[in-house]
Amino acid sequence: MSLRQLIQTTIMAGLIALPFTVLAGDTPSPEIPKAKEKATEAYGCVAPVEYMRKNHMDELMHKRDDTLREGIRTDKFSLAECINCHVTPEEDGQFASFGEDEHFCSSCHNYASVSVDCFSCHRDTPEDTDYRHTFNSGNNPHHGKMALKGKKLSVETLQVLTEGDQQ
To answer: Which of 24, 70, 20, 162 is nearest to 62 (CA)?
Structure first.
């Protein structure tokens, strides 16, 4: 057997054995805390779980842009609403903080070694949900009537406002 044939045989044997080697070991997966309640009966969250797992970062960024640039505040894809539903108290009544494996966001982000900066500004624990901003509340210069004074809403903005929390 030539050296070339030996190398080819070794590579072929490795390729054949690779799937068995990968499947033989248990791959640890993150333990994701359950949400408090289902946002919708159809798929639990504001969108199907698989969609949220793949696209939550894009939805949060889009929501951020709508809120900061257009003054649109809706509950759908709101980081605060994610936290209110998904961060649940532990047995002692305390909430895990971002960075702890028990925190909803951290359970996957720690596992995947992905860092986020959401919580350098936003709360990582549920807030008092009795207080809500409403669109056009008029009391805050950064959103509401004052932000829209003299401006026309785009078609996209109107679509978000009319569809925002209805799903």
So the answer is: 70
